[in-house]
UniProtKB/TrEMBL annotation:
Organism of provenance: Agromyces salentinus
Domain Methylated-DNA-[protein]-cysteine S-methyltransferase DNA binding: 8-81
Keywords noted in UniProt: DNA damage
Pfam families: DNA_binding_1 (PF01035)
Protein name: Methylated-DNA-[protein]-cysteine S-methyltransferase DNA binding domain-containing protein
Length: 104
DNA sequence: CCCCTGACTTTAC
DNA sequence: GGTAAAGCCAGGG
């Protein structure tokens, strides 16, 4: 179902905007919703246009926050009540995908 | 058109 | 629980 010529960036931002507070989606899930498997492409969009999007609601498959942005993301999670789990990793925590993963 | 990079995923050892 | 390798997609030079 070929959609209208919408930029990949706009599509990603739209999905991220659809993620309700307190929940998160993995890069792979976002890509899947777009009909693609470019999880990395999604990350690239966030890196460039994520400044105006809820990038913290998009995490990796393992529940870890974006590379180099764990501290900032953690503040948003606690503020929105996103279920996270403390770990001994460098990030110091991870997302509880079992409860926070967004299901459309 | 070719090559490289990247806020990734998955499988295998 | 870890690391290693290959696979995938989009953007930029």
């Amino acid at each position: 179902m070929p959609q209208q010529p919408v930029g990949f960036v706009e599509a990603v931002l739209a999905v991220v905007a659809d993620i309700p507070p307190g929940q998160v989606a993995t890069y792979g899930d976002v890509a899947a919703l777009l009909g693609s498997r470019g999880a990395r492409a999604v990350g690239g969009v966030m890196a460039r246009y994520g400044s105006d999007a809820a990038w913290w609601r998009v995490v990796r498959a393992g529940g870890h926050p974006p590379s180099g942005h764990a501290a900032s993301a953690r503040d948003h999670y606690e503020r929105e009540g996103t279920p996270i789990v403390a770990t001994a990793d460098d990030d110091g925590y991870r997302i509880d995908l079992s409860a926070a993963r967004w299901r459309p």
